[in-house]
Write a structure and sequence with these properties.
The chain is an alpha+beta fold and about 160 residues long. The protein has one domain. The protein is built from three helices and five strands, in the order E-H-H-E-E-E-E-H. A five-stranded mixed sheet has the order 1-5-4-3-2. The chain starts with 9 loop residues before the first strand and ends in an 18-residue tail after the last helix. The C terminus is likely disordered.
Amino acid sequence: MSPGDPPPFEIEFYADESGDVPCLRWIREDLSSTKRRALGMAMNEVLQHHGVQVVGERSWGRQLGEGLFEFRVDRTVKPDDKIAEKLVLRVFCHAHGDRKILVLHGYDKGKSSSPRRQQREIEVARSRLASWRAIEAEKRKKPRGRGVGAAKPAARRKR
């Protein structure tokens, strides 16, 4: 892949029925600038380029089953002249379509690393995936083209 080529996977963020994008909100509002920067770089340099194959790299991912995988950012970073910061972030994703990664949910495991918390966070991601699948199924049901009750295409004006 040459430097000008786009990454082989496109990253999308789950949006709920109201249009809220909870994982993006978590990144923007709950993470420190150091954690945001590190997660952004990891998503750009690892997740976008390897997609679901990150699960083959034990340090970067884990398959959770039922179409869900975990992207892990476990690093120690030292921005500029600041004190080193340990990052333990988890982002739950779903691969779909033509090389697309749907980011469903994330949390800072460094703040609370209990197995019970991990299971709760996975359940949130599973719930969002089920919601997304239902929305996608409804989209596929809707008729395409002109059917009964479909709007007519706009007429072209002659010049």
